[in-house]
Design brief:
Distance between the termini: 116 Å
Order of helices and strands: EEEEEEEEEEEEEEEEEEEEEEEEEEH
Number of helices: 1
Domain Ig-like: 8-99, 108-188, 194-280
Structural class: mainly beta
Shape: rod-shaped
Pfam families: I-set, Ig_3
Strand content: over 45%
Largest sheet: 8 strands, mixed
Family: Belongs to the immunoglobulin superfamily. IgLON family.
Organism: Gasterosteus aculeatus aculeatus (three-spined stickleback)
Number of strands: 26
Helix content: under 10%
Keywords: Disulfide bond, Glycoprotein, Immunoglobulin domain, Repeat, Signal
Length: 314
């Protein structure tokens, strides 16, 4: 008297369908033969349809009767509140029968709250949050979108203890539950750290030519630079030209004189710290500045020569 498609199976508590929330035209099928005198659809104990008479006040619900044998219930724009058991009940002259199906409503993953972009100092403890909803509950995964973009250990909350400068960047939070395309949000993390002078360039310059000294530092925020000769701060008004481009600074000494040879100090600073380094302007051929300090390469040769002399007892 009553039959339904094999997928889904219409047994007690079997799924009518895994429906996505908001989807149009979700069906619970029911087929009857010509011996049925009465038929009805119920949701729990509430009558939805009795025969062709609609008892439900929900405008989203209607009957589908394609031919004399089909008596199916259709729900438009399915909502999570529609989930639950539905009963197709029929009556013949001899007996009554019911078949129950269960509508499972799925909801795509949705990230509804994520940490805003933030700036922290190196060494701080950081927690990034990513909260998502969905049915079934979504899985949440984190990645730092550096060149490797490897997965990170964390779900709703990603804890970073003692964050380092190489952990700065764009963090991706992905929530997925296989109902629809995963939802993705991003958090940009800036890590502040004090300056480190990573490269300097001295200059071997003859009298009358231009000497160029260079200093390159890394820092966040971008460092400020100053140049000193002995204890005196240099400026563009003192016969030199200072250029600052991002994390690099160049000191140009035009028309070098004997008095210009010597030690110069490059100072890089931001609000987290200061670092300085010595840079030399020296005469060609001497390999040393006016204070007698040799460049590193010549100092190494002299050191090796001393060791050789001691070894051979010269």
């Amino acid at each position: 008297l009553l039959s339904c498609p094999s997928n889904p199976t219409v047994d007690s508590a079997a799924p009518c369908h895994h429906a996505a929330s908001g989807r149009d035209g979700q069906h619970c099928w029911c087929y009857v033969d010509d011996k049925v005198s009465k038929a009805a659809w119920l949701n729990r104990s509430n009558i939805i349809f009795a025969g062709q008479d609609k008892w439900s006040l929900d405008p989203r619900v209607d009957l589908v009767t394609k031919g004399q044998l089909e008596y199916s219930l259709r729900i438009q724009k399915v909502d999570v509140f529609d989930e639950g058991p539905y009963i197709c009940s029929i009556q013949t002259k001899q007996q009554s029968k019911t078949s129950q199906v269960y509508l499972i409503v799925q909801v795509p993953a949705n990230i509804y709250k994520v940490t805003e972009d933030l700036t922290v100092n190196e060494g701080a403890n950081v927690t990034l949050s990513c909260l998502a909803s969905g049915r079934p509950d979504p899985a949440i995964n984190w990645r730092l979108l550096n060149p490797s973009a490897e997965p990170l250990d964390g779900e709703e909350y990603l804890d970073i203890t003692g964050i380092m400068r190489n952990q700065a960047g764009r963090y991706e939070c992905k929530a997925s539950n296989d109902v629809a395309t995963p939802d993705v949000k991003y958090v940009n993390v800036v890590v502040n750290y004090p300056p480190t002078i990573k490269k300097t360039q001295s200059s071997e310059t003859p009298v009358g030519r231009m000497g160029t000294l260079q200093c390159d530092a890394t820092a966040v925020p971008t460092p400020e630079f100053e140049w000193y000769r002995d204890e005196k701060r240099l400026s563009n008004a003192q016969g030199v030209n200072i250029q600052i481009i991002g994390t690099n600074t160049i000191l140009m000494v035009a028309n070098v004189t004997e008095e210009d040879y010597g030690n110069y100090t490059c100072v890089a600073s931001n609000r987290l710290g200061v670092q300085n380094a010595s840079v030399f302007l020296y005469r060609p051929g001497t390999g040393r500045d006016i204070n007698g300090s040799a460049p590193v390469s010549q100092s190494l040769w002299l050191l090796l020569a001393c060791f050789a002399c001691l070894f051979f007892k010269c």
